[in-house]
Amino acid sequence: MAGNFSFDQLKKAVSSGEIDTVLACIVDLQGRLAGKRFLAQYFVDSAHDETHGCNYLLAADIDMEPVPGYKAASWSKGYGDFVMKPDLATLRRIPWLEKTALVICDVLDHHTHDDLPHSPRAILKKQIKRLTERGYIGYFASELEFYLFNETYDSARKKHWQGLDTASPYIGDYQIGITTKEEGVMRRLRNEMEAAGIPIENSKGEWGPGQEEINVRYAEALDMADRHVILKNGAKEIAESEGKAISFMSKYNYGLAGNSSHIHNSLWSADGKTPLFFDKKAEWTLSTLGQQWAAGQLKYAKEFTWFLAPYINSYKRFQAGTFAPTKIMWSEDNRTAGFRLCGEGTKGIRMECRIGGADLNPYLAFAALIAAGLAGIDEKLELQKPFVGDAYQASRLPEIPKTLRDATETLAKSKMLKQALGEDVLEHYVHTAKWEQFEYDRRITDWELHRGFERY
């Protein structure tokens, strides 16, 4: 948990007039920042200890519609408050907003002041505690892909999200020349995130016109999740200030590559000095612990897919020949498989889960991967041999769930997740998934109108 700004530094900056606004933010079910803008002096005086928010924020859909049927919050319970407890270790300056600092808050029960079990940050913290109890640190890194448009969100809305002008007219994957045209946003993104305490290793063009990938330096799981959500929020704000728009939608256009969020993960010793997955004498140089961890993620991948692909649109990304996986299998270095071993033969050896889209909530995704990995260790699972070849064409490999409906069914039946997360927590997110499906099922899409208005 590392920001770049101590509370003492904040107090001095407020006194001198360098900072006049503090954003106190929780993370909602969708992985977005939600919270309050404080006049900085009020935050320093009292709100740094705690503030409050309506508990419907963790019982609402992406449209901010209060969703009926949750146990944790409802109209019948009056939609009361929860506590927003600033984690001052996450305090940081926000360079792209004038005189502004930001802090991530934990969500606590209003009466007991315990972590609210179904809040995304609490879910991840619970799984990190399980690692800590065993003497492990989980290091994670989530790559993020997105499309950059020569549009504002207003102009894109007026076009009904069709025929949008991408920042580059053709695919510029790794191409320096074409991505130079996008540097107005990307250079700011790299430098200003670094100044906000989010170390950016690099950015590059991806496999779509105007598509970008940005890579954040790996970190302990909670710190990485915090970085991830601030990066997504900040990227949109920076782009908008440049008259551009960004989309992290998993598949915004049927004919173009989707946006992924590949997640690299490994275990290290409690002091962070010894890589527990590296064994130069082991097969693939992957230790027994690492093999069991990977085997657990493979075994339970279908059960936790929803945590990597939470929307109807998420499943449109899983198409053969698009660098998005369709099969649950691991490989040594093969981008057609759902899991890939990276850094073989080095201390940086790790598993890369390629299933997740850029629309995932990182706290939930990391928590699910930890839970599955620990299950693999506890069950002493044996890692199967790596796949070689084109996984898209391998008919006998287990498939990633093809639809949200399929993923919701496997999520609801998961005994492993029920035990790891808690029954009420799992039920909360199963209900979230079912609501997303219900909302989609009753809507009329543009595709239906185009296909059937005249022809039926």
Automatic annotation (TrEMBL):
The residue ranges crossing the membrane are none
Q: Which UniProt keywords apply?
A: ATP-binding, Ligase, Nitrogen fixation, Nucleotide-binding
Instruction: Say which domain of life the source belongs to.
Output: Bacteria
Output the Pfam families linked to this UniProt entry: Gln-synt_C (PF00120)
Domain GS beta-grasp: where? 17-115
Name the job this protein performs: Catalyzes the ATP-dependent biosynthesis of glutamine from glutamate and ammonia.
Cite the GS catalytic domain residue spans from the record: 120-456
The name this protein carries in UniProt is Glutamine synthetase family protein
Q: Into which family does the record put it?
A: Belongs to the glutamine synthetase family.
| Database matches in PANTHER family | GAMMA-GLUTAMYLPUTRESCINE SYNTHETASE, TYPE-1 GLUTAMINE SYNTHETASE 2
Ranked from the top, the taxonomy reads: Bacteria, Pseudomonadati, Pseudomonadota, Alphaproteobacteria, Hyphomicrobiales
Q: Which cofactor does it need?
A: Mg(2+)
Q: Cite the InterPro entries for this sequence.
A: Gln_synt_N, Gln_synt_N_sf, Gln_synth/guanido_kin_cat_dom, Gln_synth_cat_dom
